[in-house]
Design a protein that fits this description.
2 domains, four-stranded antiparallel sheet, alpha+beta, Rossmann fold, about 25% helix, about 110 residues, single chain, globular
Length: about 110
């Protein structure tokens, strides 16, 4: 898992008796662009919320690492290593996808 930007094994999450993630695996190599696609209700938003430490994974989830950091033991380091922007930002209709990425890079003070 050392060469992976995102590594999740057996990712699970339920809300009450509704399983929204039932043991998915994600492996994203460092330096790649990754898209998470699926129909409404497939669990995409829940997976992103877990990977960005906004909600905890469900019981029985395996190891989850983001930016090389274990979410269970060092979520703050994972947060410091990532930037997340939603599909529907406030300026979504006004700027292109590339402009949105450049805006996020500027906000995170990333070099050109």
């Amino acid at each position: 898992m050392t060469n992976l930007a995102i590594a999740a094994n057996g990712l699970r999450k339920s809300y009450g008796d509704k399983n929204v993630l039932d043991g998915i695996d994600i492996a994203v190599p460092r330096g790649t662009v990754f898209s998470l696609l699926g129909p409404n209700g497939a669990g995409k938003t829940t997976a992103v919320k877990i990977l960005s430490t906004l909600v905890p994974p469900g019981p029985g989830s395996g190891e989850i690492r983001v930016g090389g950091h274990d979410l269970a033991t060092d979520p703050q380091a994972a947060r410091a290593a990532i930037g997340v922007t939603g599909q529907f930002s406030a300026v979504d209709g006004l700027i292109t996808g590339e402009e949105n990425m450049l805006l996020m890079a500027d906000l995170h003070r990333l070099p050109k």
